[in-house]
Every structure is written in C-alpha cells, then in structure tokens.
Design a protein that fits this description.
It is built from 23 helices and no strands. The N and C termini lie far apart (50 Å). The chain is mostly helical.
C-alpha cells in the first residue's frame, strides 16, 4: 500500500476514534502500534518505546512539573483572589474597570502559571460573580474571563513553548522573550475592546459604587502587601532565565521552592495543601506526557514509513509562494484546534511543518509565537474550546454552555488581528531576543 493511501487511512482512523470518544493519547499510540506491526513486524515494536525514551531523556523536561507545582501552589495559596482585591478598588470606578482589572490580573497570573485551566477557573470563581452582580453584559464578562485566562500561555513561563522548544530544538529562553510583546499586545487589545464597548454603552460595564471603592490610600496600598512576595517570586524566575543566572529547569525548581516559601510566609502553607499540589502535578503531567508518548510514537513510525518526506513534498507542492504554505499550516492549526488539544497538534504537525518552514527561510522562534497565537484561537473555538469548558465548571448554574460559546466571537476576532500583525511584522516577536542575546 502506498504512503498516500496509508496517510488517508491514518487520518480517517484518528477521526473515527476521536469521534467515538477515545482519548488522543490512546488513539495515536494504538495506531502507532498497529502500523509498526503491519508494516515492520512484531520485532520492530521497540521503535515505539525508543521514541518515548529519547524524548524523556531531555533535562529541560523537568521544568514542566516544576512550573506546574509552582502554579498549583500559587493557586491554592489564594494569590488570584488577593490580586483581584488589590486592583479592583483602584480601577473599579472606571466604566468597564472590573473587566480591565480581570484582564490585568490574568496577565500577572500568567507569569506564575504558564497553563490556562486553573487561571480560568479562578477568575470564573472570583471575577465572574462580581461582574454579573454589577450588571455587566453577560457575554462581555464571560469573554473577558475566557480570553484573559487563556493568556497564561502567551506570558512566560509558558508550558506550550517549553514543549515547542524541545520539539523544534530552539532556545526556550529565546521563545519566552519572543512571546512577551505579542502577549502584552493581545492583552492590551482586550483591554481596549472592553473600554471601547463600555464607553459606547455604559450599561455593559457599570463601575463600582463609590461606597464599595471608598478606602483610604494606606489601606489600598496595604492590599498589595499580600501579593508582593508571590509576584517577586514570579519575577525572579523570569529574571534568572533571561539574565542567564540559571537554566530553565533550575529556574523552575527555584520558582516552585519560592512559591512554597511565599505560601508559608502568607500563612497559607500546610502539608494537606502540599499533598494536593503534588497530586495535581502528577495528574497534569501524567495527562500531558501520555499525549506526548502517543503522538511521538506515531510520528516516529510514520517517519520510518517515509510519511514525513511525503508530507513535506505534498506541502511544498501546494504553491511556490511561501506565504501560501504558511497560511495552510496556520489553517491546519486552527482546524485541528476544533477537535484536539494543543499538545496533540504540536507533536502531530511540527515534525512535518518545521523542516518545510525553515527551508522557506522562516525563523523557527517566530513560528513558535505564530503557533502559540493559533492555539489562543483554538482555546476559544467550539466545539472543543477548552477555555469554555473550564469556565463552565466554575460558572453559576444559570450560565449555559451556549452562552459561553456565543461570548467568544469578538475575542476570537481580536486574536485573529493579533495573529495577522505578528505574521506581517515578525520583528515584533524577534526584536527582544535579539536585543538581549544578540
């Protein structure tokens, strides 16, 4: 059977199994095993295991559980609630001010987490009831939380970019610097949208009452005292990475330790919390690593069959224009985002796309930010839209899933604008790494 027919059968089998509800890790892993046996025989099954061991041998991979532990400690020690309370008394008198505060807090939380699930749940529990109580437009409040909460992967440290860096074999520190400006740009677009909508229609985002925000200046400043140490820990992690004081893995370990110290100083640390943190880290990393094992094995077997060369030739034959090929790649990212998670998209596409991309003269660091922005769109788009389901789990019962899906479209439009800007002006991503590292 020729490689083209096999490729169609693989895609068809994956689509069918995903529609039946089989987890992607077992879909890709089982297809890899079947292909190995049918194409190369039982004795070739060691290929599946060797691909897994080869990936796990990366020292930088240790940063993933460390950052997850850091994020979990920050979450369980109440940093999000304290941050929200510290800022809402300052901007609460502004039309749409609570929406702006929510986005700003999401950016700060992004610097402590690198993942989106916990961030959206926290904002859903803290900010959504407050906005609904004030009379905010329901769609605006929902979209602000899902879009703002998804910024966790655009603000370093970003788990997505750690895996992308390992896959593309590029500097993770460079990727962290490259994503900073696009991430802040996207956040500023959200804030501008909220302010414009509420400025044109004040009923969409009423301010806090004077009574609620009436607080002496010393008390307002004191609110920041509770979050100063956790924010210092997050800032120290990033500075240690960018300044070259520590590797990504060392900085992640220091961040996890610093978060534990900050929780202890705040009186929030306990052995019960530590147990919950470690269990959550095991569950999160276990899920991610199983996805990595399955997709990595499938790509390894597909490569042995000549599939990667076939895919590259097919991509290269689409057009002589690099921009057209790039557009097809981004379209594939967005299309796959309707159905599967980012980790599956990353490992299924990058071994095929990256060699074609570099041969066309594109920078793999810049392409990592393009991929990251594409995943921002995938987070919000139904029917998969993980950000929507995270919020549904934390939202009041009267908030239906249909309401959450309907609230995403203006923010998806903003994400598309940001993606186009980064594509047209690659320097927006690349100037900071070049400035710092030369």
């Amino acid at each position: 059977m020729d490689i083209g027919t096999l490729t169609l059968l693989i895609i068809g089998a994956m689509g069918l199994m995903l529609m039946l509800g089989v987890p992607l890790a077992f879909v890709s892993g089982s297809i890899a095993v079947v292909l190995t046996i049918t194409q190369f025989g039982w004795n070739a099954l060691f290929v599946v295991g060797s691909r897994t061991v080869e990936f796990l041998d990366s020292f930088a991979l240790i940063a993933v559980p460390m950052f997850v532990i850091m994020a979990s400690i920050m979450e369980k020690s109440g940093v999000a609630g304290d941050l929200y309370r510290a800022f809402h008394v300052w901007a609460g008198g502004l039309r749409g001010g609570i929406g702006v505060v929510t986005t700003f807090v999401a950016v700060l939380l992004g610097a402590t987490t690198g993942v989106i699930g916990g961030e959206i749940v926290l904002l859903g529990l803290i900010a959504l009831p407050q906005m609904l109580k004030l009379g905010y437009d329901k769609k605006l409040a929902i979209g602000t939380i899902t879009a703002g909460g998804s910024l966790g992967t655009m603000i370093p440290p970003s788990i997505i970019l750690i895996f992308y860096g390992l896959t593309a074999e590029v500097s993770i520190s460079h990727l962290f610097l490259a994503t900073l400006m696009p991430g802040l740009m996207l956040a500023s677009f959200y804030i501008a949208y909220i302010l414009i909508r509420c400025g044109l229609n004040p009923a969409m985002g009423p301010p806090l009452s004077a009574q609620e925000r009436d607080m002496p200046l010393p008390e307002k400043l004191k609110l920041f005292g509770g979050v100063a140490l956790p924010m210092l820990v997050a800032g120290g992690v990033l500075v240690s990475i960018y300044a070259g004081f520590a590797s990504i893995t060392e900085s992640a370990a220091l961040g996890a330790f610093g978060a534990a110290v900050a929780a202890w100083v705040r009186g929030r640390f306990s052995f019960e919390m530590l147990r919950d943190v470690l269990v959550q880290a095991l569950r999160t990393c276990g899920m991610v690593f199983w996805l990595v094992f399955g997709t990595n094995a499938l790509i390894g077997v597909y490569n042995l069959m000549g599939g990667i060369d076939f895919a590259r030739t097919t991509l290269g034959g689409i057009s002589d224009e690099p921009a057209v090929i790039l557009s097809v790649m981004i379209g594939v990212f967005v299309l796959l985002g309707f159905f599967i998670d980012w980790i599956g998209i990353l490992f299924l596409t990058m071994p095929v796309f990256l060699p074609v991309l570099t041969s066309l003269g594109y920078d793999p660091i810049w392409f990592g930010i393009v991929f990251n922005l594409s995943m921002q769109i995938a987070y919000l788009t139904p029917p998969f839209g993980p950000a929507c389901f995270y919020l549904k789990g934390a939202a009041p019962p009267e908030i239906r899933l249909q309401d959450i899906f309907a609230a995403q479209w203006p923010f998806i439009g903003i994400q598309i604008i940001a993606l186009i800007i980064v594509i047209l002006w690659p320097g927006l991503s690349l100037w900071l790494p070049e400035l710092v590292y030369g």
